[in-house]
Amino acid sequence: xxxxxxxxxxxxxxxxxxxxxxxxxxxAAGICEWSVDTSNSDKILSVKSNGISEEExxxxxxxxxxxxxxxxx
Length: 73
Description:
Layout: E1 4-10, H1 15-27, E2 31-37, E3 44-49, H2 54-63, E4 68-70
Antiparallel strand pairs: 1-3, 1-4, 2-3
């Protein structure tokens, strides 16, 4: 399956917030790489997907008590 880059607007405001979701994103099947730009006002989560859906990424973030929505450019 081809890698796909998907981005989300989140409320992951700081390194502490990011650390709370790190293990789940690291261990999720279908995620090659991910990063969060906490300096961006939209706190952009970028995911290089290898099969995971937008809905699955949103659910991972939601389970940890945070919000993620697909970023529409």
